[in-house]
Amino acid sequence: MNLLEANEQLYYIASCDPCKRAVEIDLAAMIQRFGWDYDLDKLRPHLRCTRCGRRRIIITTLWKQATTTTSLKAQILKGSEPR
Ligand SMILES: [Zn+2]
């Protein structure tokens, strides 16, 4: 999945394991920086905690769509894999 798709479909939450700080990553800003076709999975190594400076970041992604049966079916039909 690239950043453009991610920005449309996901909330991308980065949590710091040592200090428990959690922020939603502004994917629109990431698109500005890396380009819309940048792979979402490549983003994680760039992330660093702004409080403690460590890189032990845990990613949580939340679907923006309500996970009703209908939207789940739509995702399956589109061929996207659940994470
Ligand atoms: Zn931290």
Secondary-structure blueprint of this entry?
Elements: H1 3-9, E1 10-16, E2 22-24, H2 27-34, E3 57-63, H3 69-78
Helix pairs in contact: 1-2
Question: Brief overview, please?
Answer:
The protein is α+β, with helices and mostly antiparallel strands and 83 residues long. The chain is built from 3 helices and 3 strands. 13% of the residues are buried.
Describe the structure.
Helix 1 runs antiparallel to helix 2. It is globular, with a radius of gyration of 14 Å. It has one domain. It has a 3-stranded antiparallel β-sheet with strand order 2-1-3. It has 3 helices and 3 strands; from the N terminus they run αββαβα. The longest helix has 10 residues. The protein is of the alpha+beta class. The structure holds zinc ion (ZN). Zinc ion (ZN) binds next to loops.
Spatial sequence of strands, sheet with the most strands:
2-1-3
Q: Which structural class do you get from the secondary structure elements? A: alpha+beta
Gyration radius, rounded: 14 Å
Termini distance? Answer: 11 Å
Brief descriptors of the model:
binds zinc ion, three-stranded antiparallel β-sheet, alpha+beta, 30% helix, 3 helices, globular, single chain, 83 residues
